[in-house]
Amino acid sequence: MHTGPVQTERVGTDRLQAGDYIEAWHNGKLFHQGRVTDVVPKLDLFWILDARSGTRRLLDPEALDIIRREDMALDGSEPRNYPAGAPDRTPNAEPMSA
Questions:
Q1: Mean pLDDT of 12-21
Q2: Backbone phi, then psi, for 49, in 5-degree steps?
Q3: Which CATH number fits domain 8-69: 2.30.30.520, 2.60.40.3200, 3.40.50.300, 1.10.357.10?
């Protein structure tokens, strides 16, 4: 079990790759989270497999704050700790519908 500080990093599509686990925030609310499946850096867009719905989502980082979660388990389970710098997130927060 991970007990140290959670590693997060705000990223653009030029620094994302398939397999990265991200959270997409807007105005302090979590809208989407999941694993990156495809990246289109020239268009500054990327796809994720949404952890809540199980569907693919095309995300626009111009409209969202994208945070890469370094602590996300490879088995897809929810992280146990949340970063101190994450926007007002609590362990009970649920992603909002778009």
A1: 90
A2: -95, 105
A3: 2.30.30.520
